[in-house]
Amino acid sequence: MTNNREALEKVTEQKRIDFVRNEMDDKLKLMEQDIHNIGGDVSQIRSNFWEDVTVNLDEPDDVIETFTSIKQQAELLGERERTYGQIHRQQKILHKLKDTPYFGRIDFDEAGEGTEQVYIGIASFMDKKNETFYIYDWRAPISSVYYDYSPGPASYQTPSGKIDGELLLKRQFIIRNGKLISLFDTGVTIGDELLLEVLGNNANSMMKSIVATIQKEQNQIIRNEKSRYLLVQGVAGSGKTSAALQRVAYLLYKHRDTLKSDNIMLFSPNPLFNSYVSTVLPELGEENMRQSTFFEYLQTRIGKAHQVEDSFSQLEYLLTETNTLQKESRLKSIQFKSSVAFKDLIDNYFRALHKDGMAFKDIVFRNKVFISREELTRKFYEMESHISIPNRIQLLIEWAQKEMKKHAKAERKQQWVDDEIELLDKEEYLEAFHAAQKKNGKEDEFDYFDQEERFLRKVIVNRHFKSIYVSIKKRRFIDIPAMYREIFQLSCPESLTEEVWRKIAEQTIANLEQSFLSYEDGTPFAYLKDKIEGRKSTSGIRQVFIDEAQDYSDFQMNYLKELFPYSKMTLLGDINQAIYAHQHNEIVSKEDNEEVERIVLMKSYRSTKEIVEFTRGLAVNGDLIEPFNRHGEKPKVIHAQDSTKKIDDLLIRIKDWQENGYKTIAIICKTIKESSEVYELLKKKIDVRFIQKGTTSYEKGISVIPAYLAKGIEFDGVVLYNASSYHGDLEKELFYTACTRAMHALTMYMDDGKLNPYFDQINQDTYETIEVN
Ligand SMILES: Nc1ncnc2c1ncn2[C@@H]1O[C@H](COP(=O)(O)OP(=O)(O)OP(=O)(O)O)[C@@H](O)[C@H]1O
């Protein structure tokens, strides 16, 4: 565009912005009025609630009428409150729109229908008569043209079919506070200029929405609805997480009548990540989906009776264990327990349980066995063998509850009940007295004392038995640990040697005796428990998102698939960032293949071109990674003479970065142990934060953090505190993950004057070496 034309266009566009904002003001006023009226209605319904219902409990018919009347009144109140909530949400969105009404415009000439100017923003906005769209939601069918095409022939899908036409203009805006800052008419991709501006900004402590600059291949992820499994393999910083969150927003919009945020679950890599991404959906006017780490989820399945090691502790062990024999042995155990072979073994064991081998615990009260484990086993196997194990358990629960009720009755005569009656306080007595009175009705016909005592006995026994009933209902009488243990008494699986199997068994059993489950036991244990108890997934989940999917073992992935048999799954991963020691999953097995769609993202947006050039040597097929054309300084490799010199140098560089406007700086260490030492050292000198596995919020400033907790997150500047300490296959991905957290600058300190072994694969021209003497 020539300067003159651009200036003219700017004036015209600003006029339109002003016009639309005025319309928004009118709408907001109307909403204000509505809110006022409905708010009044709500408080009136609330305060008159009981006056407006007819309460009459004399006859059964009257009770029904009263019930209906209350129900109607409650429904009215509910409906008003819902409308109130809806208007409130719309108000919030409109306020956002007033600030930035839209970010894009396309002129689409639909064959035979003329040209329409389509302005695209985070939500739709219509004229007063609800006839014309002033703004289209970015998720509307026509908006996809904006993301998918450059000027020329274009089409989009609608529920009633494909619409063809020509894209005549594609324009981007930067609007702040209603003022048009700039506009670009763009060609092939969505405004490199705009993207450059967005990516050049400093990293935030919260992830941003990428709605204005979604790239074509990311749009494929966001709008894909064909397959059961959507599999995204994307290089570091390619926007997997960003696209996933936009996809959540898209699905919520597209299926707004049937899908709610509660029906969507995101498995995230660490607790910090939860808070990091928590603002993206609200920014888009949507509610956050359910979110959990896999470990947290596992814990809810296993229950409190066992202490389960978390994934980070497992990793920390492997990174710090110096006894190679022990480490090797643990590694073999991890490999086996995370494999499909182990899952098959459990499946076989489970099948055999139909005939024999179920283990139960005695149901005990005050050291007296009321129902013995043998009795439970006998009863269980007396049931028809075609009944499934979970159903038999259900029947067993019903039987056990009945038995316990009988025992409870008999127990009322016991001495301990007398003893407890003595200890009752006045209020409890009084309560019992009134209850007895109520029960008897007429005063003269009975013996209060007797009645009262009987009542008290019952109350006391029931109080004690309540916890037994609950624990029966919760299936605590099933001895899952005993059965899990049995699996390790089976003959040696084909893939292992006798010696290895024996060691695995010994260690597992020793842990079980302490009620401890290592991380690698967590999933198989939960799997066996779920199979026996017949527990299904968290109800209502229809879409599952798994970020960092490469970190899940085969076993875990299969477990998740079984847990959510009716859900669609979006799996996002990067094989180069697979930091765990277990076998890495295929993500979806071959038999699922026809239900899978795969999308590959090769362009990296997070880091500068210089950082990508440096890190590509570490990645499989790294030469295919496409950096975004944004420049910065080359990564620095620093050899310091001693630790004092290193700290001095580090402090100077950090200060420099801060003066350069860097808001988030991470000093990444290999382990939590090292992080803690570095934190202790630095906290005396600068304002610094220590991020540990329990840390749930991410703040601006300088953070010391172990590499595995930095997954999924990014920082303006990254320092690898001791980059020479990484070695071996397992740690390569950790090193790569750490380096790729940097947006603008990366500095690595090499202790001992040595580079780590991965530098053999890195082009020497891609980094700068500095000696600090
Ligand atoms: N289309 C886009 N427009 C603007 N920014 C983008 C776009 N795609 C990605 N980004 C930015 O790139 C950075 C990396 O994105 P994101 O964290 O989603 O990538 P990722 O693939 O999940 O990364 P990793 O696997 O390395 O954790 C973020 O700052 C994100 O905002």
Structural descriptors:
alpha/beta; 773 residues; 7-stranded mixed beta sheet; 47% helix; binds adenosine-5'-triphosphate; 26 helices; Rossmann fold; 4 domains; globular
Report strand %.
Answer: 15-25%
Coarse shape? globular
Task: Report on the biggest sheet.
Answer: 7 strands, mixed
Q: What are the segments in which pLDDT stays under 50 over at least 5 consecutive residues?
A: none
Rounded to the nearest angstrom, the distance between the terminal CA atoms is: 54 Å
How many discrete domains? Answer: 4
Count all strands and give the number.
26
Number of helices: 26
Briefly note the structural class of the backbone: alpha/beta
Oligomer: single chain
- Radius of gyration, Cα only, in angstroms? 32 Å
Bound chemical compounds: adenosine-5'-triphosphate
**Helix coverage percent:** 40-55%
Q: Mean of residue pLDDT?
A: 87
InterPro entries: DNA_helicase_UvrD-like_C (IPR014017), DNA_helicase_UvrD/REP (IPR000212), HelD_bacillota (IPR048228), P-loop_NTPase (IPR027417), UvrD-like_ATP-bd (IPR014016)
EC number: 5.6.2.4
Protein name: DNA 3'-5' helicase
GO molecular function, one term: ATP binding
Give me the secondary-structure topology.
Blueprint: H1 3-47, H2 49-52, H3 60-99, E1 104-110, E2 114-121, E3 125-126, E4 133-137, H4 144-148, E5 152-158, E6 161-176, E7 179-185, H5 192-200, H6 216-223, E8 229-234, H7 240-254, E9 264-268, H8 271-276, H9 280-283, E10 290-293, H10 294-302, E11 307-308, H11 311-320, H12 324-337, H13 340-353, E12 363-365, E13 368-371, H14 373-382, H15 389-411, H16 415-423, H17 426-440, H18 448-473, H19 480-487, H20 498-513, E14 516-517, H21 519-533, E15 543-546, H22 554-563, E16 568-573, E17 596-601, E18 603-604, H23 609-615, E19 626-627, E20 636-640, H24 643-659, E21 664-669, H25 672-682, E22 688-690, E23 701-706, E24 715-720, H26 728-739, E25 742-750, E26 768-772
Parallel strand pairs: 2-4, 8-16, 8-17, 9-10, 9-15, 11-14, 15-16, 18-19, 20-25, 20-26, 21-23, 21-24, 22-23, 24-25
Antiparallel strand pairs: 1-2, 1-6, 3-4, 5-6, 6-7, 12-13
Helix pairs in contact: 1-3, 6-7, 10-21, 12-20, 13-21, 15-18, 16-18, 17-18
